[in-house]
Design brief:
The structure is a homodimer. Chain A is built from 35 helices and 31 strands. In chain A, helix 5 packs parallel to helix 7 and helix 6 runs antiparallel to helix 7. The first copy, chain A, is elongated, with a radius of gyration of 33 Å. Chain A is α/β, with parallel strands linked by helices and about 900 residues long. At the A-B interface, helix 23, helix 25, helix 27, helix 28 and helix 30 of A face helix 23, helix 25, helix 27, helix 28 and helix 30 of B.
């Protein structure tokens, strides 16, 4: 059995080998092949990582031999040698997953240094301070990453040394200082591991590879993958690259840059660098770096070369790039390129600009924006006309606004967030260990770090507002407070941040509705040209309908009439109707509701003039409109014991009796939906009359309207035929009474498994189907959303029993199978059957894609998700050609 | 367009034309063709009836012409003529449905009589009294049935006449008396309809046919069809038959007889007759008739001829016959034959005897017994060793015993019965108008009428105990009581009846378990030879298991472990386990439960030694084991207001808090089934250990046991693989600890739509499937049984939105479709997958048939339904060859 090829030289790879070489490795290979200045190196494949785990965290056969071989090759082309005291080969060992997980996995720089080679490095560079700086960095990283020693142990020593020398920054320490530090670091390693620091570079290398493989399964990496829905079985590649040094003095440096502004999308080079530093100094946010523009002044040649490289890479990859570079004694090296993460706003602008620059097609453009990301643009932002109590200003690191209680600790942020509290995480800087707290926070505020610091990158990725590097605020973790000048903000106080301006504001701040940018509108127009799926909205009020229409809704997919029943001025009449003991009494109450319902429907149909409006007849169980039985029982006991009036007690007891008679063991599976229409036809008749009278009035006033009357919770065609006849009779009556003809349709929700299974029979009566995937999910899985999410859903996703919460992402295998059957069977009987979806899935991109795949006519979602659905529908078309 | 052939002469028909000619018509035709003495006549088809309804209750084209033509034919062969004063043709007009509905539809006798022909009849028979008796009968029947006049109007006149003449029976009235009655009857008709009685026989005939068609849709006929599950769209045929007269004097008579005893199955002629009477006198139970044996003494020739005819008919039809006959002046006429209704006991004996007589095959025999009828033999009966307080004795009209509150009125019986009260309907006699009250009663007791009276026939048909003709009891409807000698029984008092002995007993009576008769056992053995489906039982105790085994169960299909949790001595420990705030506390409580559960499983596995036992792990939501939240809240309020001890209040509040945290919106869709096993693996581990320790102990003791561990409420294969691994680990541990090897399997319930939809994936882990059709029905239909049956199921079946209650008869179209898919997909992956059903449908014959059709391995039902399932399984095989 020949072993796999586990190790690739850069010139053996290509950009499209990402799944084998990881993102970083594939791109290093690609850049090497197009002639860019990439330091020589090789990649250990993700397959090696998977085989490592399959073998129980042991190197698979052949990996060590192949690595040795490639190291030989590096030694040949660099002319350096591992462990050579005169001219030592030094390398970096970096993780490189298929899907980028920034900061989540481990990296070791300067590998190859030991007590001998550090002297060689000092000699060959003529820079002792530099050599010792490298060695102490290597010792710390190796100690932390490979040997598992708490990095605070090392940091404390460094802080002590700076205190001793009374200096503020690392670069103020001397070669001698570093030698002291190095001795202490080696002592720590010896004490902690019981063994001296390993001096053999080859031994160092294998240990480092081992550590990088292991870092695939750290807590934080696992959390990150869950949040970003990255499969756990991909594994990471390992990149071994010849070291180049940004810390060789003031003609050296290191930085990262985006080819366009990742926050706004503007076409300018956007980034930061630090002179005399290694890469992790920039990302970690320890020293606040210089903007990239400054490089033009400091090193004009390097800047020009870098700018050209950026242009070349963007054209080559046909997308905005996020590039890491190092300048070693004036020579530019490119260490990484990848498609840059960006805000939704930037994603839109870049996609639209690139179409206009002729770089990509419209089809490509619509796939360049993650629909779920659009949420941040479609939500309310701070009202610019409001008086703001500005506390401080930091860097506008991730756009959007958020308010919440100040929390200084990621664990507490997670806890409070899960309990439903709105919190803002405030930290000096964030690290990958804070990720779980960021997930549950409304936004992040840091006092240190730049636009590419950890907090900024992570928040942008999650679409959460973030203000970074706000050094006006002084955080005191111990006292659980921060101060700005005289003002003290304590844990639990409410502040707001505006990630688009960098403002930090006291208290909660008034928000306004979003407006779509010109580019956003253009992108959505392209999406509209491309997509097959229609997009409607779920709206219960004329205001919602109007807002959705502005966002491009092509009709209403669901108007819930029960929300109208809940209005404060109506509830007493609704209760009267429910508590009626005769049909006459009930009819009287319904007569009072009729003009109100008619007014509701008039408003909505008018707002949607010219477009279809699907109105669902009363759905929830009647006891939802009555007081709670337990509260009533307690009140009666109280009244009795406090000697209250007999008649009052009797009235309450009578009410309780009725509430009890309506109470159900499982309201979700009870007397609701069309079952109400069948047992109380007078209710549905009233609603049908309200719809048709509103329609007749609008037609008379010259509007074109098209109400679709929707019968909910059907599980048998006989229910539908019975109620359809009732609706048609009302329509005929209203036409006769008013002398006005109007168009309408009668159809049904498909929200129970039996309805899907018998779709062929139901389609004989139904003019349209609308999938109610909330209820269909509940009955197909046999769990109610309220109970599942409160009790066990968390464990189900944690244990990976379910990959996704099926109330968020449509379950294609189960619920989707029923939907597919229903569409096919229904259309067999009625080829022009209109089929849509109105469950909450209608605005979720993966679910929208599934709706496209099974041939639905439209999706319907909340007004603010209409643009998301439009884009997702277009992507579904493009991605499934 | 040629019209349909709507009218058939008897010699044009055959027995197998039942669906066109109705049961009665087809058999009259058959008997005519085999040469039996059937009066000449013709049949109007059920198709004519259906077309009559389709045309809006109008005769379809051609019907009248064809009828006229056949009347001509009758006139020719009888030599009599419609309306001929000298020699008038008289006919009966009778309904004749496809499926017999005894007494439910209308009949008119003596049609053709009028003021002139009655004189001709008198002259030609030389019997004025007879002729006037016929005429007055005709006037009353025609008035009641065709003209819709309340029959009490006619009866009052008759009673007045008898009072006036101071006689007790009709046959004591003279020709002159009848003439008076006839005049009064005609006056009633004139007053009530505003028109004189129609004198034209052809007019009479068409009006009577019209009335018979209409009687298909009377209230009582509709109720009867619903109870007996007869489709509403079959329609009835109409039989027009030349009159023969049982009321021509003492050499005439009329009667009905069964070729075997319909109560016991004994092979003796069994019936009753009345001399000088027309047929309705026997059926209506007005005079108590003579036993058929008496006929041998009174008219030996006629008896011999009748006996031979009976034997001939039984051989011809290869089944027990129910025969109506009339003797006209010493000549025997056969008016009807049909397969006789019989008790379950009789059905079994007749079927077994006929096999032994070589009349039918074993396959036929098993189809001759309605499985659902067996219920009456499988239920408890009066303990013969108990001291009985016998009130009175009547005829043993329908076997079985019942106790209940005395009710004298069918409406009240219906009302109380629906409210869950056990009632016994006590009537002088019953009529078809009482049917709704009989349905809701435990049994029926009448003071008048014989073994073939309405009450007896209906009760036998429904399998309800009945005692008839108990003339010792004197009923006083007005006082709402009956008396036996000095003893007075009031409405609401409890009595019992034994329909097998005719005893009426005071109070409730101790009952004992049933035993199977020799014939029953033989029939079930034949069923076992024939059937493919296995039959298991649902049993939670060793006693139930043993009983079921006695009844032929081949294993246990469902042992519910929660019933064991509910036992009084365990509930406190179970609550301790639930309320535990740490894993340690919970484990402690579980440790106490372990030996108890082990004892349970030991008993059941031992009772079922050698057979498989499927044990379901804990299924219900935990709050089912805790007190009710509302009651607790009320109690806390009471304690507070009455100044109770603070610590007591706090303890209750703490309990309430926990109860609330476990309370669910929809417990059916909540935290239950395997979801408990996943969130509290320690519970399932304890249960698995209890099972395996019991198994190990039994194996050591030399028993062969085969536990099947069943994971409930699975909707995703990952749930199953997670819990299966847990169970296997426990099994391995127990084998290691005990050193005993035992066999076991791990499988799952298929009780959620998603489990059925993903059966292929689930079968990769499951060694068996068991359909939990109770839950599967609830989730597929989206209604809970408790809520549906309490709130709207009644209306759903009333309005025919559902043909059957799907919790009783398995819904083949919806639930069945999912089951079929699951079986197919599951067996694709695992061809030897064991598949059964353990929902309540497992003992319902139509559902058992469906299980046979989709290839299940076994059905499982309650112990008392095991024989029903065995028979139903055999029938499914025979009927679907």
């Amino acid at each position: 059995m020949s072993t796999a090829k586990y190790v690739y030289l850069f010139n053996e790879g290509r950009a499209d080998m990402k799944s084998l070489l990881g993102g970083k490795g594939a791109n290093l290979a690609e850049m090497t092949n197009i002639g860019l200045p990439v330091p020589p190196g090789f990649v250990i494949t993700t397959e090696a990582c998977r085989d490592f785990y399959n073998a129980g965290q042991k190197f698979p056969e052949g990996l060590e031999e192949q690595t040795l071989e490639k190291v030989k090759f590096l030694e040949e082309i660099t002319g350096k040698k591992f462990g050579d005291p005169q001219n030592p080969l030094l390398v970096s060992v970096r993780s490189g997953a298929v899907i980028s997980m920034p900061g989540m996995m481990d990296t070791v720089l300067n590998l190859g240094l030991n007590d001998e080679t550090v002297e060689g490095l000092a000699a060959s560079t003529g820079n002792k301070r530099f050599a010792y700086d490298c060695y102490r960095r290597f010792l710390q990283m190796f100690g932390d990453v490979v040997l598992g020693i708490d990095h605070h142990r090392f940091e404390t020593i460094l802080e002590e040394k700076k205190a001793e020398k009374e200096v503020q920054f690392d670069n103020q320490l001397t070669a001698g200082d570093w030698q002291d530090v190095i001795e202490k670091y080696k002592n720590i390693i010896n004490t902690e591991t019981g063994k001296p620091f390993p001096q053999d570079p080859m031994d160092q290398l294998f240990k480092a590879i081992h550590a990088v493989f292991n870092s695939w399964n750290t807590e934080r990496a696992i959390v990150y993958r869950r949040v970003h829905k990255i499969p756990d079985d991909l594994g990471t590649a390992v990149n071994v690259v010849t070291m180049v040094f940004g810390n060789m003095g003031d003609d050296s440096g290191t930085g990262v840059a985006f080819t366009r502004n990742p926050s706004t999308g503007e076409k300018v080079l956007y980034g930061e660098y630090l002179t005399n530093a290694q890469g992790e100094d920039v990302v970690a946010g320890i020293r606040t770096p210089q903007p990239i523009a400054k490089l033009e002044e400091e090193m004009p040649d390097v800047y020009r070369q870098f700018k050209e490289t950026c242009e070349l890479l963007e054209k080559h990859y046909r997308d905005m790039q996020d590039i890491e570079f190092t300048i070693e004694r004036g020579k530019l090296w490119i260490l990484q390129t990848r498609n840059g993460k960006r805000t939704a706003q930037a994603a839109i602008k870049i996609a639209v600009d690139m179409v206009e620059e002729g770089l990509i097609t419209k089809e490509e453009a619509v796939t360049r924006v993650e629909p779920s990301q659009l949420d941040q643009l479609l939500h309310r932002r701070i009202d610019p006309s409001s008086k703001l109590n500005v506390l401080a200003k930091g860097l506008p690191a991730s756009p959007g606004s958020a308010s919440g209680k100040v929390v200084f600790d990621a664990d507490l942020a997670e806890k409070m967030g899960k309990e439903g509290e709105k919190v803002l995480l405030v930290r000096m800087e964030t690290t990958p260990d804070d990720i779980h707290g960021i997930v549950e926070s409304q936004g992040v505020l840091t006092s240190r770090g730049g636009m590419t610091s950890h907090a900024a990158v992570v928040a942008r990725g999650m679409g959460k507002p973030c203000v970074c590097g706000c050094d006006e605020i002084k955080i005191d973790y111990a006292a659980k407070q921060f101060s700005v000048g005289e003002q003290v903000i304590k844990e639990g106080d409410v502040i707001s941040i505006d990630g688009s301006t960098g403002q930090v504001l006291l208290g909660e701040v008034p928000m306004i509705d979003p407006e779509l940018s010109v580019e956003f509108k253009k992108l959505l127009e392209w999406a509209d040209e491309i997509r097959d799926l229609g997009v409607r909205t779920n709206a219960d009020t004329p205001e919602d309908a109007a807002k959705a229409r502005e966002f491009g809704a092509e009709g209403i997919g669901l108007t819930r009439t029960e929300h109208m029943f809940m209005a404060q001025d109506r509830l007493p009449i609704v209760q009267e109707m429910i508590l009626a003991s005769t049909l006459e009494e009930r009819q009287e109450a319904l007569n009072k509701l009729l003009p109100m319902q008619q007014e509701d429907f008039y408003g909505i149909l008018k707002a949607m003039k010219g477009l279809p409006v699907c109105i669902r007849l009363l759905d929830p169980p009647l006891h939802e409109f009555l007081p709670n039985a337990e509260e009533l029982a307690v009140e009666i006991t109280r009244l009795k014991l406090s000697g209250a009036d007999e008649s009052e007690i009797r009235a309450k007891e009578e009410l309780l009796r009725k509430v009890r008679s309506l109470t159900e063991f499982n309201p979700m599976l009870g007397h609701r939906g069309c079952r109400l229409g069948i047992t109380y036809p007078e209710i549905y008749k009233m609603q049908a009359r309200a719809i048709f009278q509103a329609a007749a009035k609008l037609v008379e006033e010259g509007y074109e309207v098209f109400p679709e009357v929707e019968i909910p919770l059907v599980m048998e065609v006989n229910e539908l035929s019975y109620l359809k006849e009732l609706v048609i009779k009302v329509a005929d009556k209203v036409m006769n009474e008013t002398g006005v003809k109007f168009k309408y349709a009668v159809g049904t929700m498909i929200e129970l498994p039996r309805a899907a299974l018998l779709a062929d029979e139901i389609a004989q009566e139904a003019e349209f189907f609308s999938f109610g995937t909330n209820d269909l999910t509940q009955t197909t899985f046999g769990f109610s959303r309220d109970d599942a999410e409160g009790k066990f859903m968390h464990q189900y996703t944690e244990l990976k029993i379910l990959k996704e919460n099926p109330f968020v992402v449509l379950d294609r295998k189960g619920v989707g199978k029923l939907m597919k059957m229903a569409v096919q069977e229904g259309r067999k009987v009625r080829p022009d059957l209109l089929v849509g979806i109105c469950g909450e899935h209608g605005g979720e991109p993966s679910s929208v894609e599934f709706c496209h795949l099974i041939g639905l006519d439209y999706v319907s979602c909340s007004p603010y998700r209409v643009p998301i659905a439009r884009l997702a529908a277009a992507q579904a078309k493009v991605n499934n050609k």
